[in-house]
Design a protein that fits this description.
alpha+beta, 2 helices, three-stranded antiparallel β-sheet
């Protein structure tokens, strides 16, 4: 067996490495060329993808725009429905306010006549009852006042009286009947309150 020196081993390793690099050079060049071709083809794909991306972006923008317009239209529809109902309630309340003096005049006139004494008065009483029934059907209700505790939301105190028999802040007398249309007060009751 021959003994190898370290110098000879290093020389041999260097020579082997040089031979391997010479053999690998054409392969490396081929791999670099392939990589370059791949990059070029990827760039071409990226350009195509970018074009698709622009189209996709445009489609997304148009979809978003359509969805927003649909939402705006739905909000507009709801808002107009609410406005219509509020306008109807305001109009109905206005008409009720104009009819209430007629009801008051019926009550004043019928208070002076005895029931059953005059057929004309009986006819007027029937018309008055029909008017009250119709108002009740559309949601107009009288406000209860006499014997109730004074409530500034429903009653308008025009007089005060000292009365020991009645409790404090109790409505003793009603001068003009108050009415509500559904949940809103059309006219407050004019009342006398005990202190």
């Amino acid at each position: 067996m021959e003994e190898f020196s370290t110098e000879e081993a290093v020389k041999e390793a260097v020579e082997n490495a040089e031979e391997m690099t010479e053999e690998a050079a054409p392969e490396a060049e081929a791999q670099e060329a392939e990589a370059k071709d791949d990059k070029d083809s990827k760039k071409g794909l990226k350009k195509k993808e970018k074009k698709k991306d622009k189209k996709d972006e445009q489609i997304e923008q148009l979809n978003d725009k359509v969805m927003r317009q649909m939402a705006e239209f739905e909000n507009f529809r709801r808002r107009t429905e609410i406005e219509k109902s509020q306008m109807f309630a305001t109009g109905a309340k206005s008409i009720v306010e104009k009819i209430l003096p007629v009801v008051d005049n019926f009550e004043r006139g019928l208070a002076t006549v005895e029931e059953g004494a005059d057929p004309f008065a009986d006819g007027m009483l029937m018309i008055y009852k029909q008017l009250l029934t119709t108002l009740d059907e559309v949601g107009v209700k009288p406000i209860e006042a006499v014997g109730q505790e004074f409530n500034p939301d429903f009653h308008n105190a025009v007089m005060h009286v000292e009365d020991e028999e009645v409790g404090e802040n109790i409505v003793v007398e009603e001068f003009q009947k108050g009415y509500m249309y559904k949940d809103t007060v059309v006219r407050h009751s004019m009342v006398k309150v005990a202190n």
